[in-house]
Amino acid sequence: MPQAVNQARTEQGGEPSGGLERKPKPRYRSAFRILGGYIEPHRRTFALVVLCTVLAIAAELFQPYLVKVAIDDHLMAGDGGYGSIAAICFVYLGLSLAELVFTYIQNNLLQHAGQSIVARIRKQLFAHMTKLSMSYFDKTPSGSLITHVSSDTEAVNQFFGQVLLTLLRDGLTLVFILVMMFQLDATLGVYCLVLLPVIACIAIAFRSYMRATYQLARTRLSRLVAFVAENLAGMSLIQAFQQQHAQGERFQEQNTSYFQANVREIRTMVLFNRTFDLLSNLVIAFVVWVGGKAVLGASLEFGVLYAFITYIRQFFQPINAITQQWNTLQSATVAVNRIWSVLDTEPEIEDRPQAVRIERESVAGRIDFDRITFGYEGAEPIFRELDLRIRPGELIGVVGTTGAGKSSLMSLLARFYDVQAGAVRIDGRDIRDMAQADLHRIVGLVQQEPYLYAGSMIDNVRMFDASISREEVIRACELVGADQLIQRMEGGYDARLSERGSGLSAGERQLLSFARIIVFRPRILILDEATANLDSRTEQLIQQALEVVSEGRTTIVIAHRLSTIMNADRILVLSRGEIVESGTHAELMARKGYYEELVRHAHGEPELVTALYGAGRN
Amino acid sequence: MQSTGLLKPYFARTWPIYLGAFALHATASVVYAYFPNLLGFFTDQLQAGDLLRSDVARYSLLLLTVGAGHALLGGYGQYLIMYAGRLFDYLTRRRLYTHFTALSEHYYSRNGTGKLLSTFMNDVTGVRESLSMGINQLAMASLLVVSCLGAMALSDIPLYLIAASVAPLLFIPWIVMRFGPVIRGRSHQVQESLAAMTASAEEQFGGILVTKTFAVEPIMIERFGADVDRIRDHQLSLVRVSSLFQALIPFLGSMSLIASLALGGYLALAGTISLGDFVALTLYVRMLMNPLQQLGNVINTLQRSRASLERLNGLMAVRPDIVEAEDAVPARLDQEAIRLRDLTFSYPGAPEPALANLDLVIEPGMTLGIVGRTGSGKTTLAKLLLRAYEAPAGSIRIGGTDIRDIRLDSLRGQIGYVPQDGFLFSATIRDNIVFGKRDAGQTEVEAAAKQARVYDNIVAFPDGFETKLGERGITLSGGQRQRASLARGLLKQAPLLILDDSVSAVDAVTETEIVAALQEERREKTTIIIAHRISALKHANLIIVLDGGRIAQRGTHEQLIAEPGLYAELYAIQEEGGQHAASR
C-alpha cells in the first residue's frame, strides 16, 4: 500500500497544479506508444484510411498534370482532334469523382475509428476512477477528475479528428507535390526543394511567436471574464458602496489590456499570412523566370511550367495546415500522458485474490474492531489499539467532539481505508477477506448531506438498478414516510430530480436516502450525522423513519443532537480516538462524566459549551 | 429597426477605417485579378515565338509585383478591418459594463449573472466576428469576384465561355448556405452531448461515496457509458455531413475546370481563343473558388450574429428600475430619523407581499435589532433602505423627504452595508476593506480590522493586508470572509450601518467580542443588526420580530423574553441549537 500512495503522490506532482501557466513537457514517445495500442485493433480501418487518402490525393494532384498534357500535347502542338481533349475531360471527371468519394470515405472511416477509440478511453478512464479508493478522491479535487474525463479526452479526440488527418493528408500531399514536381522537371524541382527548409523555418519561428501572442490574449481574456463575473455577482455591493465609477475604471484597465493583446495578435496573424503569400508569389515569379528561360531554350515545355505554377500554389496550404496542428498535437500529447498517469494509479484498496463472496442475508451483523491502529497518511494515528465489539442488531449511539474519530471509525468499517494494525471483522470475518462489492452491500451509510442524482424519484431510490422493481421502491418510501411528499410532487414517483435535488428540502432528501436503505437492505447501517441540518419538524419524521430502518439491523448512529441517540442500546463517547465512556443513557447520566456534562450543556449555559468546543470550530 | 442601436454609434466612429480598408481591398483585388492575364499574355507571346529573355524577366517581375501588391495592400486592409472589429469588442464591452452598473438588483436576480456574462462575452464576440470576419471576407471575396469577372470580361475570352466555366462555381455559395446550418446544428448537438457527459462526470464524482456505499459502480459506469456513446453518435452524424461538404466544394471547382477545359479546349483548337486566353481562364476559375466559398460563409455568419446583436440591443434597452429623481436632494442620516409608514412591499411577480404594513421609526443614534425566520422579510427591509428595490411612494421617509427624492449617492454614501455572504473581490485584503473609502490610511484600515476581529488573521498571512484573495490568491474561511466584510462596512464610518446577518459564521466567543466592539464604535450612530442568533442583538435599544413580513413583536430583549411569542420561542430553540452549532 505505501507504494500505491507514493505513486498517487508522484502522479499528483506531475499535475499542472499552478493552473495553465506552465505546461508540462509533452512526452511524445510514450504518448504515441499508448495511442498505438489503441489503434492496433483498428489497424484494418487505418490501413483503409491511408489507402483512401493516397487515392484521393493522387486524384486531386493528377488534375493539374492533365491540364499540362492538354496544353503541351494537344493545344500547344495544335495536333489531334477534339477527341483527345474530350478524353482528358472524361479522365478529369473520373479523377474528381474519385477524389470526392475517397475523401468522403477516408473522413468517415477515420472518424469512426477515432471516435470508437476516444469512447473506449473515456469509459475505461471513468471505470478506473470509480474503482479508485476514497483516499484518492480525498486527495484529488473533483475539478481535476472532471478535467481528465472531459477536456483531456477531448484533446485526444482532436488528435484523431484533426492532427492525424492533417498529418496524413497534408503530409502526403506535400510528398506527392514534390514527386510530381520532380517528375515534371528535376531542375525546377530542386530549386523548389531548396525553398522548403526556408519556408519551414519561417513558419516555425512565426508559429512560436504567434503562440505567445495568442496565449497573452487568452490570459487577459480570462482575467477580463473573471473580473466581470465577479463584479456581476457583487453588483449589489458595488451599488451599495457607490463604487460603480471606481469599478468601471478598473474594468477599463482590463478591457484596454485585452484590446492591446488582441491588436498584437491580429497584427502577428496578418503579418504571418501575408509573409506566406508573399513567399508563394516570390516562388512563382522565380519559377516563371527560371522556367521561362528554360522554355525559351526549349528545354522545358510550357505546360510543365503551367503545372508547376499550379503546384506551387497548392504547396503552401499543407505546410500552413501542418504547422497549425502543432499546438493541438502538443496538448493531445500532454493529455494522453495525464490520462495514463491516472490509469496507472492503483486503487489503494483492492480485493484480495482469495476474497470470498458472502450472501448478504446470511450476515448476522456482529462487528469487532479488533485492537485496530489507524491514522491518515502522514498524520498521527487516530486510533491506537482500539477495541470495540458490537452485537448483532444492537443500536449504538456515538457522540464526541470534532476530530474525535467518529467518522474515521465508520470509514474503516466500510473499508474506505485499511487499518494499519489489527482487524475489523464482521461476523468474525476480516473485512479485508471479503469482496468490496459484498461488503458495501452489507454496510449501508447515510450521510449528513444526502446526494441525489439527475433522474426520476424511483431511480434515485433504487440507484438506477433496474432489477429493483417499482413496487419495491414505492413500498420503501411508504415505510419511511416519504410517500406523501412524493405524491405531492408533480409527476409523483416519476418526478425528475436534478443533481442537488432541488425542489426538496434537506429533510425530504434525507427521507429518500432512508428509502434507499430499505431497498438495498444492508445488514449494518451507519448514520453519519444524518439528522443535522434539519428543522425540528422534519427531524421528527426522520426519527420515525430511523426506527423503521434500524429494525433488525445493527445500527450505528453518529449524532450531535443528543435526542437522536438517547434511546440507543448503548452510547459510546469518543474522545481523541478512545472510547472514554460506554453505556445506556441512564447509566452514563449516573456516571456524571463527560456525557452527563454534554447533556447538561445541551439544556442551557451555552457559554460553557462554547468554551468546551469552541476550539474545534471554524 | 431596433437592431441599429449598438451599431450606429460604432460605425459613426469607425467608418473611415472601413472606408480605407475597402479601398485597399478593392485595389488589391484589381491588382490580383491581373495575375492570370499576365500568364495568359506570357503564353501567347511564347506561342507566337516573339518572347525574349528580357520579357521573361519582365514577366517574372510583373508577377512578383502583382503578388506583392495584393499581399501588402490586402493584408493592410485585412488588418484594418480586424482592428475595427476588436474596437467593437472594446467599445461595446465598455458601454455594457457601465450599463450593468446601473441595473438594479431585481434585474440580476431575475436574469442570473451567467446569462448576462454569456451575453457580455459570447454575443459581443459573435457580432464582432461578423463585423470583422464577415465584412472582411465579404469585402475581399466580393471585390475579388467582381475583379476576376471584370478582368475576364475585358479579356478576349468570349462571354459564353466564361458563363459556362463559372456556372458550376455558382453552386458553391448555395451549398455553403445549405450545409452551414445543418453542420452547425449537428455540431451543436456534439457540444451538448459533451456538456452532458461533463455534467454526468461531475455528478458521479460528487456522489462517489454514495456509489461506493451502495456498491452500484457497474450501474454508474454503464450510465456514463451511455453518455459517451451519445457523443460518438453525434460526432459521426456530424462528420457525415461535414465531410461531404468539404469534398463537394473542390468537386465543383473541378467541374468548372472541366467545363473550361472542354469548351475552352475546343475553342482554342478551333482558334477562336488563344492558348493564352485558355490558360488565363483556367487560372481565373481556380481563383474564384475561394472567394465564392467565403461568400457562403459570410451569409451564415451574418445570420448567426443577428440573434446576438438583437440580444445585445435588448440588453442595452433595459431601463434601470431605480433612477434618481430630477430634483433629488441630499439627506442627513446622522440627524434625521427614518420613518416607515404602512410599508408594504412585494417583489415583482411574487404573489405574497414580502413586507406588510410596517410602521417603524428609526431614530438617529439608536441600535435596532431585527430577528425572524428565513423568509420573514429581514433582508428585504435592508434592501429597501438601500433603495436596491423601490418602496411604494411615501412609505419610507428620511427626515421629511421621501426616499425616492433623495440623491442616490448621498443615501448610499451614508449607509454602511454588511451582507451575510461576506462577498469579497479578488483583490488584496486591503483593497477589499477600503472598498467604500479608497483613500483610507493604514491606521484606519487596521482599526476597522481590529474592531471586526479579523486583524490577527490578516497579519498572520505572509503578505498581511496586501494578501491577494480569490482565484489567484488565498481563500478565506466563511467566518474570516464575514469579518473582513464587516471591517469593510465599519471602515466607512457611515451614519447608518446595516449588518445583515453578518456574523452568522463567526463562533460565539468572537461574536461576543464583535458585539462589544460594535457597541463601542457605533455609540451615537444608527445601527441596524439583522440576525438569526439572538445573542448578536440582545443589546439593541429596540428589537422587532418579523414574521411573514409583519412586525409580530417589538420591545427590548428583556421585555421580549418575558412575553410569550416567537422571540421567546426562538430564544429557547437557540439555546439548544447554539449547543448544536457550537459542538460542530
Which structural traits does this protein have?
heterodimer; A: 618 residues; alpha/beta; ABC transporter transmembrane region fold; Rossmann fold; 2 domains; six-stranded mixed sheet; 21 helices; 12 strands; disordered N terminus; disordered C terminus; B: 584 residues; four-stranded antiparallel sheet; 19 helices; ATP-binding (chain B); transport (chain B); nucleotide-binding (chain B); ABC1_TM_dom (chain B)
How is this structure best summarized?
Helices cover 65% and strands 10% of the residues of chain A.
Structure description:
Chain A has two domains: 320 residues, ABC transporter type 1, transmembrane domain (ABC transporter transmembrane region fold); 187 residues, P-loop containing nucleotide triphosphate hydrolases (Rossmann fold). Chain A is 65% helix and 10% strand. In chain A, helix 2 crosses helix 10 and helix 4 runs antiparallel to helix 6. The longest helix of chain A is centred in the middle third of the chain and has 53 residues. The radius of gyration of chain A is 36 Å and the shape is elongated. With 584 residues, chain B is α/β, with parallel strands linked by helices. Chain B contains 19 helices and ten strands. Chain B has a six-stranded mixed sheet, sandwiched between helices. In chain B, helix 17 links the parallel strand 7 and strand 8. In chain B, helix 6 runs antiparallel to helix 9 and helix 9 packs antiparallel against helix 10. Classes of the chains: A alpha/beta (618), B alpha/beta (584). At the A-B interface, helix 3, helix 4, helix 6, helix 7 and helix 8 of A face helix 2, helix 3, helix 5, helix 7 and helix 8 of B.
Radius of gyration of chain B: 36 Å
Biggest sheet details of chain B: 6 strands, mixed
How many H/I helical runs of chain B?
19
| CATH superfamily descriptor of the largest domain in chain A | ABC transporter type 1, transmembrane domain
Percentage of residues assigned to helices of chain B: 55-70%
Largest interface: A-B, 148 and 138 residues
Mean pLDDT of chain A: 80
For the record, what CATH class of the largest domain in chain A applies? Mainly Alpha
Beta-strand fraction estimate of chain B: 5-15%
Terminal residue distance of chain A: 33 Å
The proportion of strand residues of chain A reads: 5-15%
